[in-house]
Amino acid sequence: MSHSVMPDVQSSVDSRNIVIDRVGIKAIKHPLIVVDGAHRQSTIAECELTVALPADKKGTHMSRFVALLNAEPLVLSIGTLPDWTRKMAELLHAHTADVTFTMPFFVEKSAPVSGQKALMDYQLSLSGHLNDAGPIETHLELVVPVTSLCPCSKEISAYGAHNQRSHITATVRITNQNLSIADLIHTIEDQGSCPLWGLLKRPDEKFITEYAFDHPKFVEDMIRDVASTLTDYPGINGYRVTVENFESIHNHSAWAVIDRLG
Question: Which among 35, 60, 206, 253 is most buried, taking Cβ atoms within 10 Å?
Fold first, then answer.
């Protein structure tokens, strides 16, 4: 059978008359360049690409998602994500489309005393949502690791206090395409007992140990501080924050959520 007469089964009519909200591909990895202001970095994203499927259509064109990823070198930023989302919707003849790119994002940080430079990685997700050809809604999600030190442990102990690594996960709705990802990371990590660095010398370790001791925070303290910061943050309209403390003296995590995405 020649290619020209092969049946197009996915384009046939489906008689069950049920709309599919989202259908497409996920867990596909693809290289890209992520742009944040004047900074460009190469990384690898895990992609989730979906569209809505009308009730009368049997299937979507799965190969077109992959074809679009490979059509040209993938360069993404907060500003270009809406165009990419709309392009995908047009290629799939869809009125509703969702894209999410999740990737490591690297920031060069200088140690607080020695000034030693090293890269820190954070998990970044960029998401675009198109509904009925209207404005694209853009979300950014960051997972920011920090140190937390327990105020109760500090208060009741003759010396020392238990601390642990914590993950602050912030999902924000973006209204300003020029929002700086790196600046937002720094703002969020400043709400912990102490930020993390990739490379520390002994003077740095002394500094951060004492800094965390001077800034004890419960999980409740951290999440309220992050929420207060995001409420008035330029270019953000709505947020959801979770904070998880991977407890060092318990076999469970302490966890908190504030959801203001609406």
Answer: 60
Query: Using N-to-C axis directions, what is the helix angle for 219-231 and 181-189, rounded to 10°?
Result: 140
Q: Give the list of residues 6+ apart from residue 34 with CB closer than 8 angstroms, or none.
A: 40, 41, 43, 76, 77, 103, 105, 124, 126
Among the CATH numbers 3.10.270.10, 3.40.50.2000, 3.30.2350.10, 3.10.310.30, which is that of 20-259? 3.10.270.10
User: Residues 16-65: pLDDT tens digits?
Assistant: 889 999 999 999 999 999 999 999 999 999 999 999 999 998 989 999 99
| Residue for token pair 């940080």 | 109
The position carrying tokens 């924000």 is 172
- Whole-Å CA distances, 173 to 48, 67, 129, 145, 236: 18, 28, 11, 21, 6
Half-sphere exposure of 236 (CA within 13 A, CB side): 22
Q: Which residues contact 94 (CB under 8 A, 6 or more apart)?
A: 51, 52, 53, 60, 88
Directed axis angle between helix 81-91 and helix 62-69, to 10°? 140
Maximum distance among all alpha carbons in the chain?
83
The whole-number pLDDT of residue 5 equals 73
- Name the residue among 119, 95, 94 with its Cα closest to residue 107: 119
Whose structure tokens read 């709400």? 191
Q: Which stretches of the chain are assigned E, i.e. beta strand? A: 20-36, 39-53, 75-76, 96-110, 117-131, 137-149, 163-174, 236-246, 253-259
* Residue partners of 133: CB distance under 8 A and separation at least 6: 89, 95
In the numeric block, which tokens belong to residue 241?
């924050």
